[in-house]
Fold:
Amino acid sequence: MNKQKPIPKELQSRKNAKELRKNLTKGEKHLWYDFLRSYPVRFHRQYVIEQYIVDFFCPKARLIVELDGSQHYEPEAERYDKSRTEALNKYGFLVLRYSNLDIHRRFRNVCEDIDNHVQERLEPTAPSGHLPENCGG
Structure:
């Protein structure tokens, strides 16, 4: 009998992140392709930090962007998200959360908010105003 070793959690997370990158939600696709992918400060999507996979990560600004679907508003999911955010904050990361509805209805506001947070976290070195023309919705 051939007994297989369990896959280490870090490798499982990387494999899961790769799958998630292939299967972005509609909101994640919109934010990635219409804003973050061409943003002048590099963002990664579905990035592994410790045991967590974050939706978008900007290492230079130590900024994490999370998009929350309706399942995130269930009490148990809210508790998990809170503890996850607290754990990531301990590393000096700022976690920004937006709902899928925010992406759908207030896309430009979300882009401006992300841009403002990146600029604040990079000051005094970063020039401001990195919103592309197509960030209107």
Notes: Helices lie at 9-22, 26-34, 75-89, 100-105, 107-122. The two ends are 57 Å apart (CA to CA).
